[in-house]
C-alpha cells in the first residue's frame, strides 16, 4: 500500500509498504480521509517530538476491514474515527485521570504509523464509531474538534461570556463554533486574512478584527474597542509568538487565557508576570483531547458543527508530501488527503 513516510527530520516521501496486520485488540481500517495539520509541518521540521521513520497522519476516519480476535463490539464494515493519543493507563498521571499528560504517551501518526496511508492500525480503545450515513470526510474533523473542545472546557465559557479567538485557521474556526455552542454571546476572531474573517462570521463569530490594520488590543479591549476592558476568555489558536503576547492583554481582570495553538518546541515568548498577578489572570495550556473524542464525534455526526465550508481542497497521497513541505496557501483552512485516487478525481 502507499503511505506518506517521515523518514527523518526534513525528509518526507510516498513509499510502498506492507499492509499492517491487526493484533488481538486492533482494528485494520481502510482510510477514507485524513486531514493535514500544522503539527505535521512541525514534525517535518523537527519542531515537535516524533519517532521517525513513521507514517504521518493523525486526523483520520475510515472503514473497519478486519477486527482482531479479542474485539467483539465493532465489526468489519463499521466507520470509525480514531483518537490518535494512546496513554499507558499505568503512570501516575494516567492514574490521576490526566491521560493527556501520560508519561508514556504515544500517538498514531507521530510515534506509530498513521493515517496518510491506504490502511491504518487502530487499537480498539482508540476507535469511536460514527454513522455510515455521514459524509466520510467529516469524520476527519473529529480529532481537531476534540482538541478544541478540551480547550473550551478548560476556558470555562458559559452563557453570556465574551470571547476573543486569535487565529483564523481550522482550530480557530472550530473554536468559534464551540464557543457559541457553549453560550458565548460575543465571539471575536482576529486574523489577517479577509477570507477567513468572512468565514468566521459565517460560522458564528459576532465580530472579526484585522490585526494588521492597527493595534488589535485597542481594537478589542481599548476604551473604544469592541469589549472595553477586555474579554472574559481569550483562546490563542494561531500558535505564533505575536498572538501569545497579545492574549494576556486582551483578557479582562480576572479573565482566562487558554493557549491552544502549537508553537515550535523551544520558541520563547516574553510575558509580564506582574500583569498576570495584579489582574489575577488564569493562563492555561490545553494539550490534546482527554476524554472528549466521543463528544466531538457526536457533534460532527449530528451536524452541530459546520464542516464543509472549512474544507479548502482534497488531494491524493502522492500530492501530500509537497503540501506538507510548504506553508499553507493564503486563505487555506483544511486540506484533506483522500487515499483513493478515484475519489480525488471525482471531486
UniProtKB/TrEMBL annotation:
Under CDD domains, the record lists: threonine_DH_like (cd08234)
Instruction: Note the SUPFAM superfamilies from the entry.
Output: GroES-like (SSF50129), NAD(P)-binding Rossmann-fold domains (SSF51735)
Provide the cofactor list for this protein.
Answer: Zn(2+)
Q: Which family does it belong to?
A: Belongs to the zinc-containing alcohol dehydrogenase family.
Give the Enoyl reductase (ER) domain ranges: 7-337
TM stretches of this protein? none
What is this protein's record name?
Alcohol dehydrogenase catalytic domain-containing protein
For this protein, the record's PROSITE patterns field holds: ADH_ZINC (PS00059)
Q: What keywords appear on the UniProt entry?
A: Metal-binding, Oxidoreductase, Zinc
Q: What is the lineage of its organism?
A: Bacteria, Pseudomonadati, Pseudomonadota, Alphaproteobacteria, Hyphomicrobiales
Q: Do you know which PANTHER family this protein is assigned to?
A: L-THREONINE 3-DEHYDROGENASE
Alphabetized GO MF terms: oxidoreductase activity, acting on the CH-OH group of donors, NAD or NADP as acceptor; zinc ion binding
Organism this protein belongs to: Rhizobium meliloti (Ensifer meliloti)
Amino acid at each position: 500500500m502507499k503511505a506518506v513516510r517521515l523518514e527523518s527530520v526534513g525528509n518526507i516521501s510516498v513509499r510502498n509498504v506492507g499492509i499492517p496486520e491487526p493484533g488481538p485488540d486492533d482494528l485494520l481500517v481502510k482510510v477514507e480521509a485524513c486531514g493535514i495539520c500544522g503539527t505535521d509541518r512541525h514534525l517535518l521540521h523537527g519542531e515537535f517530538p516524533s519517532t521517525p521513520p513513521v507514517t504521518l497522519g493523525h486526523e483520520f476516519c475510515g472503514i473497519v476491514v478486519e477486527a482482531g480476535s479479542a474485539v467483539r463490539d465493532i465489526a468489519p464494515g463499521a466507520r470509525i474515527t480514531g483518537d490518535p493519543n494512546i496513554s499507558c493507563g499505568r503512570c501516575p498521571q494516567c492514574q490521576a485521570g490526566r491521560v493527556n499528560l501520560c508519561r508514556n504517551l504515544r500517538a498514531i501518526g507521530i510515534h506509530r504509523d498513521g493515517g496518510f496511508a491506504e490502511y491504518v492500525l487502530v487499537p480498539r480503545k482508540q476507535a469511536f464509531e460514527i454513522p455510515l450515513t455521514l459524509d466520510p470526510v467529516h469524520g476527519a474533523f473529529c480529532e481537531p474538534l476534540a482538541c478544541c473542545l478540551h480547550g473550551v472546557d478548560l476556558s470555562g465559557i458559559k452563557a453570556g461570556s465574551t470571547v476573543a479567538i486569535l487565529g483564523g485557521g481550522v482550530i480557530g474556526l472550530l473554536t468559534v463554533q464551540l464557543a457559541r455552542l457553549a453560550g458565548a454571546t460575543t465571539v471575536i476572531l482576529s486574523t489577517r486574512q479577509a477570507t477567513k474573517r468572512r468565514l468566521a462570521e459565517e460560522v458564528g463569530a459576532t465580530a472579526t478584527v484585522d490585526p494588521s490594520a492597527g493595534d488589535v488590543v485597542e481594537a478589542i479591549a481599548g476604551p473604544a474597542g469592541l469589549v472595553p476592558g477586555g474579554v472574559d476568555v481569550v483562546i490563542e489558536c494561531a500558535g505564533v509568538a505575536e498572538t501569545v503576547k497579545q492574549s494576556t492583554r486582551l483578557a479582562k481582570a480576572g479573565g482566562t487565557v487558554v493557549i491552544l495553538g502549537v508553537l515550535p518546541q523551544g520558541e520563547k515568548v516574553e510575558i509580564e508576570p506582574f500583569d498576570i498577578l495584579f489582574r489575577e489572570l488564569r493562563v492555561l495550556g490545553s494539550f490534546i483531547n482527554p476524554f472528549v473524542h466521543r463528544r466531538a464525534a457526536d457533534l460532527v455526526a449530528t451536524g452541530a458543527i459546520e464542516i464543509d465550508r472549512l474544507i479548502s481542497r482534497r488531494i491524493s497521497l502522492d500530492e501530500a508530501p509537497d503540501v506538507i513541505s510548504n506553508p499553507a496557501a493564503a486563505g487555506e483552512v483544511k486540506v484533506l488527503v483522500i487515499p483513493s485516487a478515484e475519489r480525488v478525481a471525482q471531486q
